[in-house]
## 1
Amino acid sequence: MRCLILNACYSQIQADEIARHIPFVIGMNDSISDKAAIAFSVGFYKAIGSGKTIDKAFKFACVELQLENIPEEHIPILHQKKL
């Protein structure tokens, strides 16, 4: 596994711990609405499906939230594996 998305509210702490074992983990640093969580996932997987890197797919997914006028683009946090 290269990337895990914890698309649940307040999952940043878990994501930080999991990032010790998996190269990329995305967690949420606050409460996130269902609409935002779904839009983020759709944007992320669209970018991955078109061949973007995980970093770029994460950024694309945050922009997807902005494009849909969902003011929660600051909630997803990308964690990278700690050495």
Note: The chain has three helices and three strands.
## 2
Amino acid sequence: MNTLRWIGVIVLVFGLLGLGYDSFSFTKATRAAKIGPLELSLQEKQTFSVPVWASGAAIAIGLVLLVIGGGTKR
């Protein structure tokens, strides 16, 4: 498999994952204050939404790269 086909597979998989999981959450830890030996930290839960159009575009681009990559011979 050449490079274009590998990139196409990866982009296609990310597009399918974006459709399957429309959002994902992660916890971000930040240091709020440090006064002498005392340290205050905060943990915030953040959510990122993946737009459907971005997932569809990734699937389309992945398929195009697979087709183009399959046509080239080295």
Note: Helices lie at 3-20, 52-71.
## 3
Amino acid sequence: MIIPWEQLPEITPFKPESEQAFITRPHGDWPEMEEILRQLSQIEFIHRQTILDSDTVQALGVCPQEDTLKQLLLALHPWRKGPWQIAGINIDTEWRSDFKWNRLFPFIKNEIKNARVLDIGCGSGYHLCRMAGAGARFALGIEPYWRSFAQFWAVRRFLGNIPAAVLPLAIEEFPPERCKFDMIFSMGVIYHRKNPQEHLNGIFNMLAPGGTAVVETLIATGNDPLIINGRYAKMRNVHEIPSIPGMIGKLSRAGFAEVSSVNVAATTCEEQRSTPWMSYQSLRDFLDPDDPGRTVEGFPAPVRAVFIGRKK
């Protein structure tokens, strides 16, 4: 079993849906990924230290089979979110996810201590590890993309029994009535939702009273949203990129109080780029080569904002 349920009582309420996902939403490459995880479980590793509060999440220790370890980790390519260092192996991911974390962390550093956290669409769980390193009681991520799910459990085998886990669930498969969270993160998700207001309403309902929502999204820099018919920066399944006033309005309509935009930043090719661990196209290829201020489709280049709202 990939998920050590007996070691993680915090996630046992979601075991039925998680096990069902393996049956109802199988992936053709899953047997290969499962075999990689099996082989990783047999790698000898003398654990020295786990570091969750630095830009690179690290599992320090000695691995006599370092070359084999590296090849197994590379076989889980593409690695999107990080960076990680496992037994001296640097996993240089497409996204420097520490940039995003460092932009938002000053605004939530007190609230995250001892919090029960949910991260919707958590990818390979880099931010979950940073949440745990910042003092979260438990950080739970849901991620329907099987490769990202496998990547988290690959690195967690070396990080040890940290208070974090990823379940292979889409938000539609997650049973919201079984747990209330102190903090919910939705980062890079809302512009993929056909009904963004429904998404925010759902976050509000899953929060405990006094809880905090952190929503990070692409934004349109004017007062009006960008309506996408087709692709944005070569991304499929993008429906609407909200404006800052529009996002504040949506969060307020969902019931949130003290809503604010705490950070706005253009995405750069330092933050998102191709690497040997993600060798496909990246941001540079998504921008107009003659005008990097616009995407290849002619839209304004990516700008992202972080919003915070609280449930009274």
Note: The mean pLDDT is 97.
## 4
Amino acid sequence: MFEVLIAPFYEYEFMLQALLACALVSLSAPLLGLFLILKKISLTGDAISHAILPGVAVGYAVAGLSVTAMTVGGFIAGSIVIVLSGLVSRITRNGEDSSLAVFYMVSLALGVLIISLNGSNIDLLSILFGSLLAINEECLYLLSAIAAITVVTMTVIRRPFLMDCVDPDFLRQNGINGHIYHMIFMILVVLNLISGFQTIGTLMAVGILILPAAISRLWFNSLLFCCILSPLVASFACYSGIILSFHFNYPTSPVIIITLGLVYMISVLCGTNGGLLWKIYHLKHLDS
């Protein structure tokens, strides 16, 4: 068992770096996913993950596979889409969700076009689906910084974030501008989707954001316990994806997301906070 499950991380540096990268992403991204679920805007993460693609593509066109260039480009593109969708929703009758959908579709098409014109199909696949086993030290430093910024920010202003999720009117009644906290939150989402892009690609990044959070909600109603469980679930799925891709030559990113999907289905059946079997047990208990 040691040879199969642990030895590769001792023998190959790229395996250890991939595991560390996943641990850093798993530490922060699922926390934001919990708040996206509480705000009932889970698909917003999917839209933003596509919206960063043009910036990534421009960074790639300018500097090649440079982590710094693609990160800066992705952050700028994601921030522009968030601001534009917010402005359009306020000056037109379209809601923010529909405005965001329009901008993200255009951004996705533009990003794919830029990459296609300036690179090869291999480069496009690498950006869309990630290259986790090619993580380098520069990328690890970036992921560490994003994880630290996210965890510290969420810890310091977690109460306004939570209140903005469950009762935004309370903030307005107390003279607090909830839009500021919403914008800070969305910037953190952009940063963590960039982390996800660096590891499992733009098309899969939202999976590491939402799925662990959704799984934890099926087991606990307490936000604290969800904040503990969701990073653990994400880390387990990432480890499984890395080790399976190493031994069976599977693509890493899809295996990670499929693992999370399987855990989600198990949680739907067995979860203690609304799982199917748990509900059946309680119904039988009440009937008796």
Note: The chain is about 85% helix and 0% strand.
